[in-house]
């Protein structure tokens, strides 16, 4: 049976890697998810086989845990709308981190404060260090992900969130103290881990509490503009904590799966940070977002906006050679992806070439816009990444911006004083004509003005994105 377990683990690891490779493109993403899920199923079966003869095993608890997990996990995954997917990802990731922290706590209790060890948990260093690392990082990930979920769900009042952002320096100072406490107590526990030397259970509770509060304080002051990077970073932390727990439990599957998640999450976090032209420490310790006044309205300091109608927008696009659609979070909120797809089909039937420009940090999580458009059956080849599409804006007749703000802000390129200066953006302002669909002139999630809205070639179509696109469709039908 030992050989069977090892073979099953190897198969599971191969499926993890194959599934992850499938997530590199929209065409293979669904298949990649299924492959990775199959690998995890095999890993679970292998683990159950490995522990089948353990005297302390309680199959009733295991079956109950599996049943509860299915009941709590499947319905939200099936019913959650694509607009709320970032929140779901943050919550599920947090649950993973919390699970790892509880495993570390359980190991501390089971070994009477690391005072005795089972033969399969040797070496002692792996158990102690792995458990303590998992306790700290898993707790940070759980509570930080919970705050990220509340921010994405917009459950935190705006005035409270602005106050939290303004208190960033206070939180940073507190985090340093909490980190010292968590690590210091963990070191104390580790140094006292010896046969017959039982450590009080309150010490591990102190580690979990200090790390948990630190997780809250790390994410509290981070603005919404940085949330995609935060989600990716917390995901990487959860993976690393799972790998550490695997070392403590001597479980190969947890080690490999955790390292895959940690490595891929770290790479993605770095890519997201590069896409914003910001370092990860700058995001964690010097965030911005949500603390600026709303953008100037008509006649404000930046100039006067020019409003348009659905009829005018339809005429402009119907007689264009190329139209580029730039989706943003406003498209997700309005659930306008299907209407956008219908509008794109109508324009193509009139001989207009339609492309979709995707910014790496558009929306609230990596790949958010790709997923929404794919749900509406937009052709994968029509979705263009920023580097591939930026050279085409200067020869584009009309660019339709739907709820995107910060990723189209030319201040990132032209204004050295802007908080987002240097961040790569979609060069929408180079188009011959720009139509922006927004509910109002309020600023984006980064909380800063967008000069694009006041540019001479830009016109604003105010209202709900889905309603506005539907009106454009009706006008296109009449042409």
Primary descriptors:
single chain; 479 residues; alpha/beta; Rossmann fold; 3 domains; six-stranded parallel β-sheet; 18 helices; elongated; translocase; NADP; transmembrane; membrane
Question: How does the SSE layout of this entry go?
Answer:
Blueprint: H1 2-22, H2 26-50, H3 59-79, H4 85-110, H5 124-152, H6 158-166, H7 168-191, H8 201-219, H9 227-249, H10 252-275, H11 280-285, H12 310-318, E1 322-327, H13 329-334, H14 337-349, E2 353-358, H15 368-375, E3 383-385, H16 386-389, E4 398-402, H17 411-414, E5 433-438, E6 458-462, H18 465-478
Parallel strand pairs: 1-2, 1-4, 2-3, 4-5, 5-6
Helix pairs in contact: 1-2, 1-10, 4-5, 4-8, 4-9, 5-7, 5-8, 5-9, 7-8, 9-10, 12-18, 14-18
How many distinct domains? 3
Strand/helix succession: HHHHHHHHHHHHEHHEHEHEHEEH
Q: How many β strands by DSSP?
A: 6
Q: Helix segment count?
A: 18
Q: Overall pLDDT, averaged?
A: 85
Which range does the strand content fall in? 5-15%
- Termini separation comes to 71 Å
Oligomerization state: single chain
- Residue runs with pLDDT of under 50 for 5 or more positions: 287-301
What is the strand arrangement across the widest sheet? 3-2-1-4-5-6
Estimate the global geometry from the Cα principal axes.
Answer: elongated
Radius of gyration: 25 Å
How would you characterize the largest beta sheet?
Answer: 6 strands, parallel
Helix content: 55-70%
- Helix/strand-derived category reads alpha/beta
